[in-house]
Amino acid sequence: MSIMFSELEKYAKENKVPIILPDGIEYIENYIKENNVKNILEIGTAIAYSAIRMCSVSDDVKVTTIERNPEMISKAKENIHKFNMEDRITIIEGDALEVEVTGNYDMIFIDAAKSQYIKFFEKYTPLLNKDGVVITDNLNFHGLRENIDNIESKNLRSMMKKLNDYIEYLKNNQSFKTTFLDIGDGLGITKRND
Ligand SMILES: C[S@@+](CC[C@H](N)C(=O)[O-])C[C@H]1O[C@@H](n2cnc3c(N)ncnc32)[C@H](O)[C@@H]1O
User: Fold this and answer.
1) What CATH number is attached to the domain comprising 73?
2) Is residue 141 pLDDT above 90, yes or no?
3) 0.90 cut: is pTM over it?
4) Torsion angle of alpha carbons 13, 14, 17, 20, nearest 10°?
5) How far is Cα 28 from Cα 36, in angstroms, rounded to an integer?
6) Could you give the CA distance from residue 59 to residue 25 in angstroms, rounded to a whole number?
7) Residue 38: which domain range?
8) 66: Cβ below 6 Å to ligand 1?
9) Among residues 13, 116, 121, 181, which is most buried (max CB within 10 A)?
């Protein structure tokens, strides 16, 4: 299996597809194991690398994953087929802010457009089980977040500000408690307050 993971990593690198960093996915895999996570909702499939790795933790893990880019969807389907996981990974095709998703989830993994993180959180946390967790990736954004004023690109600066807004939103959210981990590209681990 590990040879196949490395094939996906190689493809992502060669085609500049941003996938979760090794430490980040290892943390998530351990979380799934230790907390008996079964149903996962992922926002941002890309080539289905993280979906496949999460499903590989155990045969009874199921992932519903949302992706809007047709090229990514097609590659994700190919990869899911290679891993024989068609019955456990469901792709919802479309914009995560527009599609309708049902079900209840033990984990929601947010890994799509950084500028929309607050909206994703608000739209999807009603589907989170009582003891469920929201994991958000890229909160350090390649170390750029700390130096917003030095970033020349206006778009990037605006995205960084939105990412900071999300972090503040999580910190001030009375219904949820978030732990920020310096793992991978920065993970937020968010759980409901009791
Ligand atoms: C960082 S990649 C996901 C990587 C993947 N989770 C992994 O680690 O293997 C982000 C993906 O989210 C998709 N995306 C961004 N915004 C989206 C949205 N609003 N709805 C659906 N997909 C979105 C992009 O097309 C891109 O493929």
Assistant:
1) 3.40.50.150
2) no
3) yes
4) -10
5) 12
6) 17
7) 2-192
8) yes
9) 121
